[in-house]
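Q: Here's a chain of 361 amino acids. Please give me its 3D structure as tokens.
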Amino acid sequence: MSANFAFTPSAQPMAEEARAAALLNPGFGKIFTDHMLVMNYSAEEGWDKGEIRARAPFQVQPGSAVLHYAQEIFEGMKAYRLPDGGLSLFRPEANARRFAQSAERMAMPVLPEQTFIDAVRAFVKAEQAWTPTPDIGSLYLRPFMFADEAFLGVRPAGRYSFVVIGCPAGGYFKAGADTVTIWVSETFSRAGVGGTGAAKCGGNYAASLVAQAEGMRHGCDQVMFLDAAERSWIEELGGMNVFFVFADGSLLTPPLEGTILPGVTRDSLIRLARDAGLRVREEKYAISQCIADAKSGALREAFACGTAAVVAPIARIRGKAFDVQVADGRPGEVTTRLRAALSDIQFGRTADPYGWVRRVV
């Protein structure tokens, strides 16, 4: 399979002046670049060579499997502007590996990991002018795959499309907010044992939206899910993993037991924290204990993390029968230090001792 993707430039790219203006305040997920990368798969012929072409709507049959049986997966990544003006990716191998694992779980064809990386690199090279300066943000990348065979029988599809799109991105949460408030869902579950919790598929996020809306009605920014069996143990947020920092300086994050997405940011922060001499526990944490620890002061910090939000300090945790503040409600020392350490590596402001950064241009 060739890594040389055909490139057909858009006949109507955004004007340079308009693009420059858009990059000053891009928000998140609202402005898209001029092109997309598309590869198609059939059970008979495998993957085609792929093409980068003008971003445009798809023609999807009404009977297409993705519309009826939700065979769809995706990844979230970023391209970062380096101090010398170049661009890099952060741990793309981890995203490629997780994409393959998601495909296996959803009975979809596995895109070779190197092809995934080559496709993302080619897309970034083609759209490099869309990457904001580091003080604004980064170029958010969305590789995804969906079933594109028209049939109504319940079985894995025989045709698929792999696509990469991108958008310049600033902050994930509302402008000016340096902390977030979390709503604990006691009614809805995100995933159960044996389900798709560890796969990055759209259905997991669709299942979280009603709980997210409930949280927003209570003035919260994100929803926190508990385990489906006992409704006692903290698992993850609607789109992010979560960490807790205690008075002794140790960190705790829920363990990966098949119901939680194995976040690349989560894994990176664990490595950074341990190398900084901090004790990190991957252990179950009951919501009742979390509330008690917040009230007693044993819980000193909490933060959400993911590619889009990076690291978001949590100020308050709310539920139907409780509303607790985490310490003084401000970003904590450990949270701030870890966020800076991660961001400095991603943007090339400091040495990368882990080999995580992959230069593109």
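Q: Can you summarize the key feature?
A: The longest helix spans residues 202-217.
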